[in-house]
Known about the structure:
The protein is of the alpha+beta class.
Amino acid sequence: xxxxxxxxxxxxxxxxxxxxxxxxxxxxxxxxxxxxxxxxxxxxxxxxxxxxxxxxxxxxxxxxxxxxxxxxxxxxxxxxxxxxxxxxxxxxxxxxxxxxxxxxxxxxxxxxxxxxxxxxxxxxxxxxxxxxxxxxxxxxxxxxxxxxxxxxxxxxxxxxxxxxxxxxxxxxxxxxxxxxxxxxxxxxxxxxxxxxxxxxxxxxxxxxxxxxxxxxxxxxxxxxxxxxxxxxxxxxxxxxxxxxxxxxxxxxxxxxxxxxxxxxxxxxxxxxxxxxxxxxxxxxxxxxxxxxxxxxxxxxxxxxxxxxxxxxxxxxxxxxxxxxxxxxxxxxxxxxxxxxxxxxxxxxxxxxxxxxxxxxxxxxxxxxxxxxxxxxxxxxxxxxxxxxxxxxxxxxxxxxxxxxxxxxxxxxxxxxxxxxxxxxxxxxxxxxxxxxxx
Length: 438
Ligand SMILES: [Zn+2]
């Protein structure tokens, strides 16, 4: 009886999320409509289709953003009332649903044009507040890059040249992506209990938008299988580090593994809240952050092992300059700093402290973007201002949490697998109060 009431509230959350997605195109990252789903015709295009992969159709309709806002308020109050007499073993589930209703409520406020300070926004939408990053750490890494990178000219020129030199040429991309995908699939299988049927098919093609990294097509799923196709863009500049990130984070053991685990959890429990992953939510921040951290778990947190992988799977197969391999550890540090730099730029832009021009000048000064980057590109980045908090900072939160509750990489893998199926809490992971058996 009790669970029925909670399921009804979770179903309301799900319905509201789907309705809101009509006004929020990129929101639905994953959705399980039922135990099975498959395409039944060939009416899809490899030219335009991006996430979401679903024809959600009329489930999107019936409510305005004002309705969503209003219902969220009541739903939250009902959940809090329910919590007062709930059983202890229901608490994590209730907290999870409350968090997600608050996430949805906040995103809806933004869609209606409300202005909320950056840190408040990320707190309400992901359960996360990123620390302030000092300019000094950016100065330090820039100084190191200046010293270490070969060639002459300004440090920004050296960075741009290095970036170009570690870019995989289009004619080698299919081989590199295919072999890398298989290698990450094998590492995931080695460390987790997975069906093994969800390795995506890899394609490469020239996509209409050169800045789009890939285009995904979901063909179907069931409890034991995710049928996915990923089309990587031949026009995109694929650097070595970005390829590793894109395979491990976007596919296995990152997002696709998370989706596989969520389908199974939904089928096993029937909990409606497990059917959806909304981009603007704490479960999304979890898969974004853990999807980054889990790459380092694949290499036992050893930079040497990661760089060995890059040498064998990317530098060699793509005929890149092997002399640059030794600079990859520094480059990875720089990439991490780039993320923090973009986070800081997003925050200051959002809060009105910087103009687009000032943000662009800052990013160029530190080599975080190339010199031909335009304010229009920064405007694009500004479409999803929470991105760097739900990625960079979420990764750091996952990292610190995993380190505080586990004592080996094996334990980390068990914890990761458990969290993929759990009512996790980013807020609880950030303040380290969240507990789960693994
Ligand atoms: Zn992601």
